[in-house]
Protein backbone atom coordinates (compact mmCIF):
# COMPACT_ATOMS: atom_id res chain seq x y z
CA UNK A 1 0.00 0.00 0.00
CA UNK A 2 2.81 2.38 0.92
CA UNK A 3 4.48 1.62 -2.42
CA UNK A 4 1.33 2.64 -4.30
CA UNK A 5 1.20 5.98 -2.48
CA UNK A 6 4.89 6.66 -3.20
CA UNK A 7 4.42 5.74 -6.86
CA UNK A 8 1.37 7.99 -7.25
CA UNK A 9 3.15 10.88 -5.52
CA UNK A 10 6.17 10.58 -7.81
CA UNK A 11 3.90 10.64 -10.89
CA UNK A 12 2.47 14.02 -9.89
CA UNK A 13 3.57 16.38 -12.63
CA UNK A 14 3.04 19.94 -13.70
CA UNK A 15 2.65 20.84 -17.35
CA UNK A 16 5.37 23.20 -18.57
CA UNK A 17 4.80 23.71 -22.27
CA UNK A 18 2.99 22.41 -25.30
CA UNK A 19 4.37 22.63 -28.81
CA UNK A 20 2.44 21.71 -31.94
CA UNK A 21 3.92 21.42 -35.41
CA UNK A 22 2.04 20.59 -38.56
CA UNK A 23 3.54 18.75 -41.53
CA UNK A 24 0.96 18.16 -44.22
CA UNK A 25 -1.82 16.19 -42.60
CA UNK A 26 0.01 15.08 -39.44
CA UNK A 27 0.18 17.20 -36.31
CA UNK A 28 2.83 16.39 -33.75
CA UNK A 29 2.07 17.52 -30.21
CA UNK A 30 4.93 17.54 -27.69
CA UNK A 31 4.07 18.12 -24.04
CA UNK A 32 6.85 18.71 -21.52
CA UNK A 33 6.20 18.24 -17.82
CA UNK A 34 8.19 17.86 -14.62
CA UNK A 35 7.64 14.92 -12.33
CA UNK A 36 7.74 15.24 -8.54
CA UNK A 37 11.41 14.19 -8.47
CA UNK A 38 12.36 16.96 -10.97
CA UNK A 39 12.79 14.84 -14.10
CA UNK A 40 11.53 16.39 -17.34
CA UNK A 41 9.13 14.09 -19.13
CA UNK A 42 8.11 14.64 -22.76
CA UNK A 43 5.06 13.04 -24.30
CA UNK A 44 4.81 12.98 -28.10
CA UNK A 45 1.43 12.47 -29.76
CA UNK A 46 0.88 12.38 -33.52
CA UNK A 47 -2.59 13.09 -34.83
CA UNK A 48 -3.56 12.60 -38.44
CA UNK A 49 -5.99 15.27 -39.58
CA UNK A 50 -8.63 14.45 -42.13
CA UNK A 51 -8.38 16.50 -45.29
CA UNK A 52 -11.25 16.42 -47.78
CA UNK A 53 -10.48 16.41 -51.51
CA UNK A 54 -12.27 15.77 -54.80
CA UNK A 55 -10.68 13.59 -57.45
CA UNK A 56 -11.82 12.90 -60.99
CA UNK A 57 -10.10 10.08 -62.78
CA UNK A 58 -10.21 6.77 -64.58
CA UNK A 59 -10.73 3.49 -62.73
CA UNK A 60 -7.69 1.26 -63.30
CA UNK A 61 -8.46 -1.58 -60.89
CA UNK A 62 -11.24 -2.76 -58.55
CA UNK A 63 -10.93 -4.84 -55.38
CA UNK A 64 -14.25 -6.06 -54.00
CA UNK A 65 -14.81 -6.09 -50.25
CA UNK A 66 -17.50 -6.99 -47.74
CA UNK A 67 -19.36 -3.63 -47.68
CA UNK A 68 -18.25 -2.20 -51.02
CA UNK A 69 -15.07 -1.98 -53.04
CA UNK A 70 -11.81 -0.10 -53.48
CA UNK A 71 -11.28 1.50 -56.87
CA UNK A 72 -7.78 2.48 -57.92
CA UNK A 73 -8.25 5.82 -59.69
CA UNK A 74 -5.69 7.70 -61.78
CA UNK A 75 -6.32 11.41 -62.39
CA UNK A 76 -5.17 13.44 -65.42
CA UNK A 77 -1.85 14.31 -63.73
CA UNK A 78 -1.04 10.62 -63.28
CA UNK A 79 -1.61 10.65 -59.50
CA UNK A 80 -3.12 7.38 -58.23
CA UNK A 81 -5.65 7.10 -55.39
CA UNK A 82 -7.21 4.09 -53.68
CA UNK A 83 -10.85 5.13 -53.21
CA UNK A 84 -12.85 3.10 -50.70
CA UNK A 85 -16.49 3.19 -51.80
CA UNK A 86 -19.12 1.69 -49.49
CA UNK A 87 -22.72 2.43 -48.51
CA UNK A 88 -21.92 3.10 -44.81
CA UNK A 89 -19.27 5.71 -45.72
CA UNK A 90 -21.38 7.69 -48.19
CA UNK A 91 -23.31 10.76 -47.00
CA UNK A 92 -26.22 9.64 -49.18
CA UNK A 93 -26.46 5.85 -49.59
CA UNK A 94 -28.44 6.37 -52.81
CA UNK A 95 -25.18 7.51 -54.46
CA UNK A 96 -23.74 3.99 -54.21
CA UNK A 97 -23.17 2.24 -57.51
CA UNK A 98 -20.65 -0.15 -58.93
CA UNK A 99 -18.10 1.00 -61.46
CA UNK A 100 -16.02 -0.88 -64.00
CA UNK A 101 -12.39 -0.65 -65.06
CA UNK A 102 -12.12 2.18 -67.59
CA UNK A 103 -15.01 4.24 -66.13
CA UNK A 104 -14.40 7.90 -65.35
CA UNK A 105 -15.62 8.80 -61.85
CA UNK A 106 -15.58 11.81 -59.55
CA UNK A 107 -15.25 11.21 -55.80
CA UNK A 108 -15.03 13.45 -52.73
CA UNK A 109 -13.86 12.37 -49.30
CA UNK A 110 -11.19 12.35 -46.64
CA UNK A 111 -7.70 11.54 -47.78
CA UNK A 112 -4.70 10.11 -45.99
CA UNK A 113 -1.35 8.66 -46.96
CA UNK A 114 0.08 5.31 -46.00
CA UNK A 115 3.66 5.03 -47.13
CA UNK A 116 3.63 6.24 -50.71
CA UNK A 117 -0.02 5.31 -51.36
CA UNK A 118 -2.88 7.83 -51.33
CA UNK A 119 -6.24 6.74 -49.93
CA UNK A 120 -9.68 8.36 -50.02
CA UNK A 121 -12.63 7.37 -47.85
CA UNK A 122 -15.37 8.34 -50.30
CA UNK A 123 -18.23 10.45 -48.89
CA UNK A 124 -19.70 11.48 -52.26
CA UNK A 125 -19.74 9.48 -55.50
CA UNK A 126 -20.83 11.88 -58.21
CA UNK A 127 -22.39 10.86 -61.50
Strand segment count: 8
Given as residue ranges, the uncertain stretches (5+ residues, pLDDT < 50) are 1-23
Radius of gyration: 23 Å
Give the name of the CATH superfamily of the largest domain.
Answer: Nucleic acid-binding proteins
Rounded mean pLDDT is 79
Order of helices and strands: HEEEEEEEE
Major sheet strand order:
4-5-6-8-7
CATH architecture term of the largest domain: Beta Barrel
Instruction: Characterize the quaternary organization of these chains.
Output: single chain
Helix content: under 10%
- SS summary, helix count: 1
Structural class: mainly beta
Shape: elongated
Describe the biggest sheet?
5 strands, mixed, barrel
Strand content: over 45%
Distance between the termini: 66 Å
Total separate domains = 2
Keywords summarizing the entry:
single chain; about 130 residues; mainly beta; OB fold (Dihydrolipoamide Acetyltransferase, E2P); 2 domains; 5-stranded mixed barrel; 3-stranded antiparallel beta sheet; 1 helix; 8 strands; about 5% helix; about 65% strand; disordered N terminus
Please write out the topology.
Elements: H1 2-10, E1 13-23, E2 26-35, E3 40-48, E4 51-64, E5 68-75, E6 80-86, E7 104-114, E8 117-126
Parallel strand pairs: 6-8
Antiparallel strand pairs: 1-2, 2-3, 4-5, 4-7, 5-6, 7-8
Amino acid sequence: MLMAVVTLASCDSSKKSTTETTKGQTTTKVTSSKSANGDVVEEVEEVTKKVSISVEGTVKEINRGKDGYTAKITDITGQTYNATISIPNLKDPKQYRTVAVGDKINVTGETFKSGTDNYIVVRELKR
